């Protein structure tokens, strides 16, 4: 329902208009009727209608003056002019005053109804447009914090022109006085509270608490700008004079880190870029801050790392990667866990001391992983997917984390290698036993022959054979030969010297000596006893 007043110095005209119309049917409520423009104007102090229908010729303030005053002060009020035939020229001036329409007196009911119908439709459309604008404005206001963070993240991650920065700073009520500008980034390292379950709402609450402390120190107290990024880091841009700017941000970062650990029980690291003289160069400073933060890989977590400190301490040592790789793989192949752990620790320490770039350190580790993968595949297992293993290393933020991961990975490899070695040993021993059974009749059968048959060194085979069988190679071969000799003595009429030749003894006398040493009797005595059915147990 829209409100409406009528202004005319003739009471009869006012009463005629009032009486002719059923206002509510057409969506209007008549809230006033006035005899001149001044009276109507004064009434607007108490209630402003949506529509004013006014005559032109009136004492004190005519209709055109009223329309002009309304247009100047009440831009949303719609004015309709009523005019007589002789006042038509005045009516044309009303168009310049943004008057909605004018009607010639006397006004017919049909004409007035048509005007109200069209007016209501236009007022409805206008209201909908205004409501949409209000809704959009409300949505914009609600979205401003998010839009602010999106703009700030874009400003520090890409080149943004000075004009856009100024416009957006005005829109978001931001300011940085200069004359130099520097960017920082913060990353949460670890939560000192030990949750029974990792609940995202709890971690998000702690991250919000971290943001509040950083916001209070850097923005509210020191006039910087703080924002959150899509990768759950916190960005900071700061301004000041040289050379104190770098020292200031270092000090405030230390204060923030200390307060965060004390009150929120969370540890964080900061990366700090270089100061630049133009705000458009903040993207360079922020990129350096991110690079500085990446150096946690070398120096460890819970640090405040400036890109300038990294550059000054760079390239102190050269890592001899190929030599380290050879030693580490050798330790893996031999299954020496203690030696491998020590070598790995020494290698990691040398990488850290070298101050190599983070990317180069990753490359070193990935090259070592390729060797591990090759060794693993050579052991006959396909459980490791090369792409997965090589990609995983980038998930670790420090060399210490990489060391722990590599130790765990290589312990799995140790188990696989040991299992494979055990399987290989069993296979080799079975093959060596088969060879001995096939060749024990050869009096020249030697340890070297069997070792060569199974592709092992004689010394290694000798030690392995005794470890697994509990007896030396000679003892085992003698056992096989004497067992066959006992069988032949019991079941055949072959002479003792013939049997000696069949079981690998070219010297019958030596055969008799060996036989008696093991059985307490000569071959002849053994045959006699065995044929009489006397137990030899």
From TrEMBL:
* Keywords on record: Cytoplasm, DNA-binding, Phosphoprotein, Transcription, Transcription regulation, Two-component regulatory system
The record ties this protein, via Pfam families, to: GGDEF_2, HTH_18, Response_reg
SMART domains found in the cross-reference section: HTH_ARAC (SM00342), REC (SM00448)
The domain of life is Bacteria
InterPro entries referenced in this protein's UniProt entry, alphabetically = CdaR_GGDEF, CheY-like_superfamily, Homeodomain-like_sf, HptR, HTH_AraC, Sig_transdc_resp-reg_receiver, Tscrpt_reg_AraC-type_HTH
Q: Where in the cell is it found?
A: Cytoplasm
* Location, primary (coarse class): cytoplasm
Task: Decide whether keyword Amino-acid biosynthesis is in the record.
Answer: no
Residue ranges constituting the HTH araC/xylS-type domain according to the UniProt record: 430-529
Is the keyword Phosphoprotein assigned to this protein? yes
Q: Which residues carry this modification: 4-aspartylphosphate?
A: 55
- The record places domain Response regulatory at 3-120
* Name assigned to this protein: Two-component system response regulator YesN
Lineage of the organism: Bacteria, Bacillati, Bacillota, Bacilli, Bacillales
